[in-house]
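Onboarding guide, step 5: your first structure request.
Type a short instruction followed by the sequence, for example:

Predict the 3D structure of this protein.
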Amino acid sequence: MRKFAVVVNDCAAPPIPGILAIRSRNTDHGDRNFNLNFDELVEGLPDRLSDVHMDWMEILGFLFAADLVCERGAGDVQWAREIELWVPVRDPAYWELRRPLVERIWTDLTNDGLRMHFEQEDDPAPPPRQGREPHPLHDCVALLSGGQDSYVGALDLIKQGRRPLLVSHSASGAVNGAQNAVESNLREVDSSIIRLKLSAGKARGAEAAGEEPSQRSRTFLFVGAAALVAALGGSNEVYLNENGIMALHIPMTAARIGSLSTHTASPPILARMASLAEDVFGKPIAVENRLVHLTKPEVVGRAVELGFGHQMISTVSCWQIGRTSSHCGICSPCIMRRISNEYNEVGDQLYDADIFDDSSALDDPKARDNLTHFVSLVEDLRELPDVDLEFEYPELLRAAPAMTLSEAIALHRRWADQAASVLYAHPVPAGLR
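The system replies with structure tokens like these:
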């Protein structure tokens, strides 16, 4: 396990060699290297942010920054990290009481250890200014990532008569392009749709202490920002929409539990985020996933039912899309996307590697491992008795409070049959059975 010490805005000087510095502003010890901008989220709210609300956004932003600068090692043994983090806040005593839950949520998302130290902020940034116009009338806040699930979730909300206010985390050019495209598509359904942008990442032109691409904690910042808008804007309801297979995300092998299995929309983690937000904002906050009972093919099928299947091509899915601006074709999200689009006979983007029909693509060890493990998982979900599935894939037990264990197993068996109908129609995966 790799160990790191990180200090934000030079708020402390612990006697630890090799400390990494995160600076959201210039200090006496160095220039700004991290950008956190949530002005768009705030300008339409009825009141300026309080000290607690400013601390909330900055803590989540700095946790995301720590995730970015603490680089993981190669292989599963060096994947996990132990991070000690010093963060300046306006009320250290207040946040110390909430530290255990903050640390637990972050650890659940990242599979890393975290120990936070809250230091007194002597030079706090002022809250963003209010704009002249309030946010448009809305009854919930929905996250829009540029992926298929968040798009279909938002589309479904609108078609059900809801009025979501959309929130996105600005990222790479490819992701921003997909977000713009799906926003435009949603405006075909509701011309009043508005999307607010949150920016967090390496400051332009700055030398970052590290550049870790996994970004497992982004959901904490993403949901936390949406919760602030929902709480202070009065809707009190946040939607993070992701299909149930990826929400539970059982690992394809035991070796992938930490390194290649994300918990972006894990039901118990979302429940803990809602509990923390309720405590901070002093009112009930719901963090919900309206797609959790659907498989990925069923999510795409919902878009087809609504008449928007042809727009699936404008979304992005690949784990490395932010770095390559293309779909690799070999990562788990690419495989799931291809299966789901083919299952529903909708158009798709080109993949860099065709691991379904081109056997030479498996010369890449990562491609071979991913497809082999994917096929193995599909076969387990189709053939193993329920009791064996519980033993082999204990993540199924973490479906609550969204669904029961039996519902989670049924969901995965249904998905496995859908995946098999596509996979085994192609020569390469059929040959791996």
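Each response can be followed by summary notes, for example: Residues 254-260 have pLDDT under 50 and may be disordered.
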